[in-house]
Amino acid sequence: MDVIVGGGVVGLSLAWRLAREGRPVTLVDPAPASGASHAAAGMLAPVSEVTYTEVPLLRLGVASLRRWPAFAAELAADAGLAGPEALDLRSEGTLDVAFGADDLAALDELAAYLEKLELPVRRLTGRECRRLEPMLAPSVRGGLLAVGDSWVDPRRVTAALLAALDRRGVQLVRARVGELLRDGGRVTGVRLEPPGGDDRRAELRAERVILAAGAWSAGLAEVPVRPVKGQIMRLRSPQPLLTRCVRGTVHGTPVYLVPRGDGELVVGATQEEMGFDTRVTAGGLYELLRDARELVPGVTELEVSDVVAGLRPGTPDNLPLIGPSGTPGLALATGHHRGGVLLAPLTADILLGEEGELAAMCSPGRFRDIS
Amino acid sequence: MDVIVGGGVVGLSLAWRLAREGRPVTLVDPAPASGASHAAAGMLAPVSEVTYTEVPLLRLGVASLRRWPAFAAELAADAGLAGPEALDLRSEGTLDVAFGADDLAALDELAAYLEKLELPVRRLTGRECRRLEPMLAPSVRGGLLAVGDSWVDPRRVTAALLAALDRRGVQLVRARVGELLRDGGRVTGVRLEPPGGDDRRAELRAERVILAAGAWSAGLAEVPVRPVKGQIMRLRSPQPLLTRCVRGTVHGTPVYLVPRGDGELVVGATQEEMGFDTRVTAGGLYELLRDARELVPGVTELEVSDVVAGLRPGTPDNLPLIGPSGTPGLALATGHHRGGVLLAPLTADILLGEEGELAAMCSPGRFRDIS
Q1: Which residue of B has its CA nearest to A277?
Q2: Which of A281, A282, A304 sits opposite B282 (nearest CB)?
Q3: What pairing do the DSSP bridges indicate for beta strands B321-324 and B330-334?
Q4: Span between the terminal Cα atoms of chain A, in Å
Q5: Taking CB atoms and an 8 Å cutoff, what residues of chain A touch B280?
Q6: pLDDT tens per residue across span B271-317
Q7: Per the confidence metrics, is the pTM higher than 0.80?
Q8: Distant-in-sequence, close-in-space partners of B252: CB < 8 Å, separation ≥ 6
């Protein structure tokens, strides 16, 4: 049996895929779908997220984005939903906007670079941007539309995954894993933290433990992940203000706005190296509000419906850790940083052994001393 | 019997005072202590709140502030608290700070004006301000310390009032008043809104109905009050950042910071004419955060623990409406706008007939057509 440690979008997707393959699996999490996946905006935006140094991440993202329509359709069917639209999967693209001459020059360079990679983008004037998105600030001088970029509601996705697991009878253990059980050089299961004053220490034996505990993975094994704090805000409007994702760099900080069909508008996100700190701070909120106003002044009138901080699992090279660790009996599916939702379908394929070259890029073996 | 409609700080204080006098009283509110009193910061700051046109309001405030120490001591005793410090009543004064030359000139004028009224103030340099409050922004160039201004935690005050009422056996009816009962030209009681689908319409008969329903008073009688929306934020710090209330005008907007002994820091407040709208908005939060940062840059690091919007009951002349209305059987204790917490002790005195000249200033009779 496989035991998956961690019920975020990655762990849940893995459990679901394994269950679909008819493989026995148990998932352990004290509070599934409440960590980074709960905070996430759900951008499936490999193209507009790209930077020059991150071609490998771009390739992973593009490969996983291609899997999303089928993943969503199968998940919706398995969860008993009417259809994939119940996950709010949308593909109108991401509009990256520029305010100043420097920003515009950067967009031109990015457009040329993406075209060389044969990725579908369209360079737009400020007027063209506002024709697509009339609520954009008048000061927007140009933009780049990443045509294929998509987005999804991660809270609906994890809820659907939980429903699908339930329908397939997958065991979900709502407990914290205190440590991995080890026998000689091998991982043989997990020990559960006793709740409250209970000192019965339950153990779960496993042929394979898959560590999908995000930023908390480093507490259970020697894994080079660290928490990268992100504060994110949800606004609510009677009608949607935007029809697609909008991004921009304001005061040197990237900010994005993700619209949902029901009028929710997600504003994200800070990136802070603060350790295991999930406080929503005055400074974090201030930056999000300030930058969102610069992009779309009309957000001022919207209700603030939710503010939350999550911890992304960052790695030294910004690529995830997926596959067998150096230790027999232990596999990893962690380190997805900002890409957990996007990369969930690909991560399952890699762990099921379906990907050669892409799997190699994510192999934990690229770091020494994982155990 | 008196029936008081409204369980904010004003209605609760009245009920408590009447009960202490041995007079039968019933208080009706669907959710006591949850409206403007819950949102309020609790500044007892008649001096620093003064403007040139509001000498009557200043006189009311100074008179009520003088009553606060005894009010707090008696309330604490009646509520079974250890002492008035359980209400977090503090009197280190309010520091009004200035950034630019215009602000400084305004502070000089205000100081001269207050000295003429024999109110205790001290004019300070920027350096003196920072000696008192080291977390103040370096750009603060001067200040005015209103020595006698105080503050209190309104949530503790309303909780203590509810406890005191309970200990005195005062009946608290948790229901909404649908309308006033009228017989000929006289108010004879209230009709309660049936909860849910229940169509029993309970009535409460009263010799006198005291309308203390704040911004909602105008829905029950012809009273010139309107809702003035205020958004307010609570931050949390391990140690208090400030030792006294700090106010200032930033970007033309007044902002204040009220510190509590437990590290809470209240940042207030917007003033918006939006009708009965209690949404917390992106624009409201943005202004509070922006202006608080200008006064005390260190707030950036603090956790945001609460954000709420309340509706102050504004009147055409910014003075409350306290005393008999034109209609027999109906008295008013409403229209306290930003001053409900400060004016609660005086309001009770006025309604008990203990104040002559001050009562005349608050008399509903100054407006025609109240009924």
Answers
A1: B303
A2: A304
A3: antiparallel
A4: 20
A5: 303-304
A6: 999 999 999 999 999 999 999 999 999 999 999 999 999 999 999 99
A7: yes
A8: none
